[in-house]
Amino acid sequence: MTLYYSTDLILKAYYFQQGGKHMKIYYLSATGNSLVTARRLARELDEDVTLESFRSIRLLPEIETGDTAVGFVFPVYFADVPREFLACIQRMKFRRNTYLFAIATCNGVPGTTLRTLSGALETKGARLSAAFSLDMPGNALITPQAASDKRLNEFPGRLSQIARTIARRGQTSIPRTPVWESLRSAAVRAIGPRFVVNPQKFHTVETACIGCGLCARVCPASNIIISNNRARWGSNCIHCLACFHWCPKQAIHIGGLLTDRPRYHHPEVSPSDLC
Ligand SMILES: Cc1cc2nc3c(=O)[nH]c(=O)nc-3n(C[C@H](O)[C@H](O)[C@H](O)COP(=O)(O)O)c2cc1C
Ligand code: SF4
Ligand code: SF4
Question: Coiled-coil regions in this chain (predicted)?
């Protein structure tokens, strides 16, 4: 234990000596869970932290990070890293020995997410030093209220633990994915995009849509335009469900197996935080 902590302290001293304490956290968030996680982490760390959203980097051909510590905070989609967020990470360039960490917020089924991310970074010659999954209320399959409340109550304590590890540049093991979990992840990936969140089935109820454009503003992929006072979807959907959850008239329906899902957003987040 003592050895473990002293190794961490030496590594931490090394990272800071390499160029100060600047940290960048790249995040993706549709209903606020990951945004609140990134914000709170930034508050708890006694260092200079900048948050950078997926929407601000998604079209950059190359993303030069230049920071001594880089974090990724994002939701799990279909038991994995959201494809478009992973593509951004694959276009990033890190300084040598950058401390890399990740927090995947999810609804209890992180699947192969952290392994995927770790593998993707390895192919770039980078190492994911610390990785965590964090249970939050679900926004695709909606978590029962009691379980959601419990997760939100436990969130500050869990996040503080994570923040302490990151503050000392701690290392964690990347959880192995047991065979049954890999199978479950494969099933989620096969079924989810067709039957649970399938952008081809998104539509508005004409009489309910007031053409306010909020769905277009919160869409991190600029995939919605308002035409003739109605939302219309393009072909760049990243499945995040921001449009569905934030529409003030609940005019958006997403079809699929669970047509009448309740709307959710994290209580500390408003649409302007995401636009
Ligand atoms: C398309 C989609 C697929 C999802 N798939 C999973 C999943 O496989 N496992 C899981 O635990 N949560 C899954 N979720 C739930 C989200 O990961 C979780 O609610 C997350 O905290 C939402 O983050 P946000 O509020 O920052 O957008 C999924 C959500 C969406 C929108
Ligand atoms: S947010 Fe809802 S009401 Fe406003 S334009 Fe979009 S679908 Fe219509
Ligand atoms: S269209 Fe809706 S679900 Fe698709 S990326 Fe935009 S906000 Fe997310």
Answer: none
DSSP structure string for the chain:
-HHHHHHHHHHHHHHHHTTTT-EEEEE--SSSHHHHHHHHHHHHSSS-EEEEEHHHHTT-S-EE---SEEEEEEE-BTTB--HHHHHHHHTEE--TT-EEEEEEEESS--TTHHHHHHHHHHTTT--EEEEEEEE---SSSPPPHHHHHHHHHHHHHHHHHHHHHHHTT---PPPP--HHHHHHHHHHHHHIIIIIS-GGG-EE-TTT-----HHHHH-TT--EEEETTEEEE-S---S--HHHHH-TT--EE--SS-TTPPP---TT--GGGT-
The model's confidence at residue 185, banded by pLDDT at 50, 70 and 90, is confident
Domain harbouring 28, CATH code: 3.40.50.360
231 lines ligand 3 (CB under 6 A): no
Question: 19 C-alpha vs ligand 1 centroid, how far in Å?
Answer: 35
Predicted confidence (pLDDT) per residue in 158-167, tens digit: 999 999 999 9
From the CA of 233, give the closest atom in ligand 3: 1
Ligand nearest to the CA of 227: 2
Q: Atom 3 in ligand 2: which residue has the minimum CA distance?
A: 209
